[in-house]
Write a structure and sequence with these properties.
The chain has a four-stranded mixed sheet with strand order 9-15-14-13. The chain has a three-stranded mixed sheet with strand order 3-4-5. The protein has a three-stranded mixed sheet with strand order 6-7-8. The protein is flat and about 55 Å long. The chain starts with a helix and ends with a helix. It is built from 14 helices and 15 strands. Helix 5 runs parallel beside helix 10, helix 7 packs antiparallel against helix 14 and helix 8 packs across helix 14. It has two domains: about 180 residues, Roll (CBS-domain), CATH 3.10.580; about 130 residues, CBS-domain (Roll), CATH 3.10.580. By secondary structure, the protein is an alpha+beta fold. The protein is about 40% helix and about 20% strand. Helix 7 links the parallel strand 6 and strand 7.
């Protein structure tokens, strides 16, 4: 209780706004469209994209948890800071990351809410994927793509100095222009995955989870007989029901649960879809604001034509 009270007070005092006050030399580029990410070369050639460093985008004010903190405290701290992930430290050194996804998976695998008293060290992801403060934003986006993460602790001289999220990268592109190879005003179809795998609402959950694991995807659109999108089945939906999908398939009891459930019992209905001609800048803004993991992309008849995930966006931002 004492640690909770102290952390809550610290949060209220120091995390309001969360963004650091940048030196005068850097403030200009972060406002008014980031002072033109595209800088003219003055020789008639195509303008060059300005390099934005991770230190210019990261949050310098953040909270950390310890391995011996309980999961309830970790969730409270995420709520206080409106974040989904927190760095985990031991003796001042980062040893992992704890996310809402990690916590919910642990609760589903163990004893539900009773497991909120379990320690962070039992549920966290390790080792943490790190990025240096002087790395450029495109490299950070590439690292997120390669490691399939949307959150990176930022280090400098061996110390944790900030945190960087997909939302930070996307917000910068919304302000200052798209990624390499993506023209201004380009539609979401530029980066979406075309003709994605999909699930039916009446399919057995075990069959769909096996497919998700085999394909190594976290989201599957759910469509009706006419091809129209009815909802989205996400890794988080599955974790909330039975815990980690891979472990559930290997555990006889959990697998029996999956065999008794259908997709429409756990999917997120409707809502997560976007037209294929929607400008990519708008979609980036929605990912930042609503914090989607993926959106179904539909044609004029609401039929599925693609899916855009944060991985697709990161590939676009990094020019991959």
């Amino acid at each position: 209780p004492t640690r909770r009270s102290a952390l809550r007070a610290t949060t209220r005092r120091s995390l309001c706004g969360c963004r650091p006050a940048w030196p005068a030399s850097q403030r200009g580029r972060r406002g008014a469209g980031a002072v033109a990410r595209l800088q003219s070369r003055g020789d008639g050639a195509e303008p060059e994209e300005a390099v934005v460093k991770v230190r210019e985008l990261m949050h310098q004010k953040f909270l950390t948890v310890r391995e011996d903190d309980d999961l309830a405290l970790a969730l409270q701290m995420m709520s206080w800071t409106n974040s989904r992930e927190l760095p985990v430290v031991r003796d001042g050194q980062i040893v992992g990351v704890i996310s809402q996804r990690d916590v919910f998976a642990h609760l589903a695998e163990e004893k539900g809410r009773e497991s909120l008293t379990d320690l962070v060290g039992l549920a966290m992801s390790r080792p943490a994927k790190l990025v240096h403060a002087d790395e450029d934003d495109a490299k950070a986006a590439e690292l997120m793509v390669n490691e399939h993460v949307s959150f990176l602790p930022v280090v400098e001289d061996g110390s944790l100095v900030g945190v960087l999220s997909l939302a930070d990268l996307a917000a910068e592109r919304v302000r200052g222009g798209m990624g390499a190879g993506i023209r201004e005003g380009a539609p979401v179809s530029t980066v979406m995955t075309r003709d994605p795998q999909a699930a039916r609402p009446d399919e057995l959950l075990v069959d769909v989870v096996e497919r998700m694991v085999a394909l190594q995807v976290r989201h599957l659109p759910v469509v009706g007989p006419d091809g129209k999108v009815l909802g989205m089945l996400s890794d988080r939906d599955v974790r909330n029901a039975v815990g980690d999908p891979r472990k559930a398939l290997e555990d006889a009891t959990k697998k029996q649960q999956l065999e008794r459930m259908k997709v429409d019992e756990v999917m997120t209905p409707d809502g997560r879809k976007v037209g294929q001609s929607e400008p990519l800048g708008n979609v980036l803004g929605w990912f930042v604001g609503a914090r989607y993991g993926a959106l179904s992309v539909v044609d004029n008849q609401e039929r599925l034509v693609g899916i855009v995930s944060y991985i697709d966006l990161l590939r676009g931002l990094s020019g991959k």
